Amino acid sequence: MQVPPAACLPANERRRCGPLTRLAIALADEACAQAEVRLEDVRGVFASSNGDGAVVDGILSALTTPGGEVSPTQFHNSVHNAAAGYWTIGHAILSPVVALGSYDWSFAQGLLKAAAECVVENAPVLFVAYDLPIPGPIGKVRVTRNTFGCAFVLLPQAGQNAICTLDITHTAKTMTYDEVSSPQLAELARTNPAAGGLALLQRIASVQAGAVHLASQPGTIRVEVLPC
């Protein structure tokens, strides 16, 4: 997979950031551009289950070699909010941006957090979900196949560029979760945590009203989709 360079970053930061950060920034920039929102007005929620597994694997490998020296750049990129931090640096964002990780439920929990913030703060909120496969020994235990990411902007009131409205509720009950109709996409949803929202994305793309149930912990997140 070829991820575009993070054009918003200064040259030094652009060289330091890895594929996961570039993917998150590309998703964030495209979503904000399509929504036609002013970046200075946007708050953010960046959700990733794995974080940058390649960087963590590199650090652990360095620690097991003679000398055990860890690159400062690797350490800098290992934190879970690296992608969110790079995005705020690239666009001089001063609004709050959250980096969230909730294992297999990162998409659902991230969406819930973004929606709650959008309503409470009455402000546009960028939601980005992304995960890459993890190399090395960790990747054999925390198996993630393929690359996936998505992003959209939630608005307190539907604007002229709005695709749909979402009514999001959480219940403590465990319900039957919706899956996508395509076997290939269903496999992706099962093997990449960020793709846990594919059923919702498919519902939005189909321009058909209806409800989608997403796995959360605890309980279930129900999203009612109403096309604009």
How would you describe what is shown here?
39% of the residues lie in helices and 20% in strands. With 228 residues, it is of the alpha/beta class. The chain has a single domain, classed as Thiolase/Chalcone synthase (Peroxisomal Thiolase, Chain A, domain 1), CATH 3.40.47.10. Strand 6 (210-215) and strand 7 form a beta hairpin. Helix 2 (19-35) crosses helix 5.
Q: Please give the number of β-strands.
A: 7
Q: Please identify which CATH superfamily we are dealing with.
A: Thiolase/Chalcone synthase
Mean pLDDT across the residues is: 92
Strand content: 15-25%
Structural class: alpha/beta
Helix percentage range:
25-40%
Poorly predicted regions: none
Given the structure, what is the number of helices? 9
Shape: globular
Report the biggest beta sheet as strand number plus sense, adding barrel if it closes.
Answer: 4 strands, mixed
Distance between the ends: 34 Å
Cα radius of gyration in angstroms? 18 Å
User: For the largest beta sheet, what order do the strands appear in spatially?
Assistant: 2-1-3-4
SSE succession: HHEHHHEHEHEEHHEE
Domain Beta-ketoacyl synthase-like N-terminal: 4-176
Protein name: Beta-ketoacyl synthase chain length factor
InterPro entries: Ketoacyl_synth_N, Thiolase-like
